[in-house]
Amino acid sequence: MRALQRFILALCMGVFSVCAPASAQNPTIPAQAWEAYKAKFLDASGRIIDNANGNISHSEGQGYGLLLAYLANNPSDFEQIWYFTRTELLLRDDGLAVWKWDPTVTPHVTDTNNASDGDILIAYALAMAGSSWRNQNYLTAATKIAESLLSHVVVKSGGRTILLPGAEGFMAPGRKDGPVINPSYLIFEAIPVMAVLAPSDAWQALSDDGMTLLRAMQFGPRKLPADWVSLNRHPQPAEGFDPEFGYNAIRIPLYLARAGVTDKALLDRLSTGLTAGDGAPATFDLPSGHPKQSLSDPGYRIVNDVVACVTRGTKIPASSRQFAPSLYYPSTLQLLGLAFVGEKHPECL
Fold first, then answer.
1. Nearest CA to 272 among 339, 221, 212?
2. Once rounded to an integer, what is the mean pLDDT over residues 116-132?
3. Key word Signal present in the record (predicted)?
């Protein structure tokens, strides 16, 4: 396991955008920003609260919370979030986390399916923390989750390696237009770490095929991917979901930038497509290309700001550099964006 620890840390330092805080004195996320985030979204039990979604918690939020606590170099907060995650969500027999926890009902788990992006985020954060902080328990837990992901949701279909959004409900014959994927569940920066934890050629195939699909998914006049995509024949918006570029997909360009993707054509297409006439990001109806909801929060705006930094060296505007948490999701994206720029593109600050 010590060899795994050394390999992950070396891989992290050599490849990833913001894997390891430089030191306790110089974390990737400043203490003030992390204190503001956790005061708003982290409760005493260790759960991250989605305050725009009925104050529920979910595996995605726990994974983001772990990653941000790691980037803030705060082991005690990391352990607090991990305690809730492992005791309240890691309940499935297959080693993956249940995705939804609701404080208003008993039992609190209201959907036992997993959400694969949450599992990836949890395993990724555990691997980074275990490597940097020399915690073997974290590395062991990360390995188990990565192995479960490989066994249950990384699958071959139609000549592609894909990530199922959950272990149940996304494949034929139960779903006529299956398989169905969510493109934003591919956290490209984490995939090489998953390959270290659970060695398999499938991880590289997942990354390669995921990039190919993103380049191909150009739906409607704005040429954007949908939140939910059927791969039954050729990629198209999945049945039973609004055919939209929505809250899920808004993070795709940020994930690409954080993973070191330098495909300017792809990044510019996504950035242009997700920008409404007022200059703010928006959700869009894909068939018509009409905006559905403007996303003016700095946490959404920073997605385009990061793309502009990476592709053109444009400085991050002051409005995006100032962190005042409001809603869980955009606040999370803003910290991920600022952490990335501060670590890899300080010239943009």
1. 221
2. 97
3. yes
117 in catalytic set:
yes
Catalytic (active site) residue 119: no
The total number of structural domains that make up the chain: 1
| Active-site residue, selected from the candidate residues 50, 60, 189, 209 | 60
CA distances from 59 to 16, 67, 73, 267, 320 (A): 23, 12, 21, 27, 26
Q: Which residues pair with 224 in a beta bridge?
A: 219
Catalytic residue among 50, 117, 244, 305: 117
pLDDT in tens, 80-120: 999 999 999 999 999 999 999 999 999 999 999 999 999 99
pLDDT band at 13 (very low <50, low <70, confident <90, very high): very low
Residues 200/192/189/41 CA torsion (nearest 10 deg): 80
* Domain encompassing residue 296: 2-348
The enclosing domain of 230 has a CATH number of 1.50.10.10
For 137-181, the pLDDT digits (tens) are: 999 999 999 999 999 999 999 999 999 999 999 999 989 999 999
- pTM score, whole prediction: 0.95
- Please give the Cα distance from 33 to 38 (Å, whole number): 9
Residue pair 85/97 in contact by the 8 Å Cβ criterion: yes
